[in-house]
Amino acid sequence: MALNQPFEVTGFHSCDISTGLRVLNGKMQLKPSANKWDWLGGGIYFWEQNPARALQYAIESSQGNQFNRIPIKTPFVIGAIIELGNCLNLTETDSLSILHEAYYNLLQVVKEAGKEMPVNKNNNRALDCAVIQFIHQSNKQAGKEPFDTIRCAFTEGGEVFPGSSITSRQHIQVCVINPEKIKGYFLPRPLDKFNPCFK
Q1: Are 173 and 48 in contact (CB under 8 A)?
Q2: With contact defined as beta carbons under 8 Å apart, do 70 and 15 qualify?
Q3: What is the pLDDT of residue 14?
Q4: What long-range pairs does 132-138 form, CB within 8 A, spacing at least 24?
Q5: Which of 20, 39, 109, 113 measures 20 to 30 Å from 77, CA to CA?
């Protein structure tokens, strides 16, 4: 089935140096995000194949331009090998069909409860998060295999050139729901490029 992705990807996680070194040394595990605005729902977020974007985000976080539950003082990037496993891969048709159907099922549930659907607004992607979380809940209730990961392309930033639909910060993110699918962590090379604190 298309949802079973029998391959691994390299992901990069933005964090503070204290967190990153403890994860690399096996002293702690990354904790899943559980905010109502997380666009792919709860999980551990990685920039796929993009250590430079991970560093950019870590720097912006250290400057107070991005929100992190654990504040970033010294920007740091760790790499991870991630087995996608049972993946809601929102770059392919079957997964997009699941997302589409889930939206309308959630809409019906919300209407029957006399409530209103969440709304995406700027960086707060409450609607996306609610639909993804609804998929997880529906799978659990139906006794279906839970998703290990979610993978999605994300358009961000301005036009790369005038009139382009390609944006300056577009990327692919991987949200890991099952931490057992993280096979290991590493320091990306060259060290001083992706972790300038080592200069």
Answers
A1: yes
A2: yes
A3: 96
A4: 132/39, 132/40, 132/41, 132/88, 132/99, 132/102, 133/41, 133/42, 134/102, 134/105, 134/106, 134/109, 135/88, 135/98, 135/99, 135/102, 136/41, 136/177, 138/102, 138/105
A5: 39
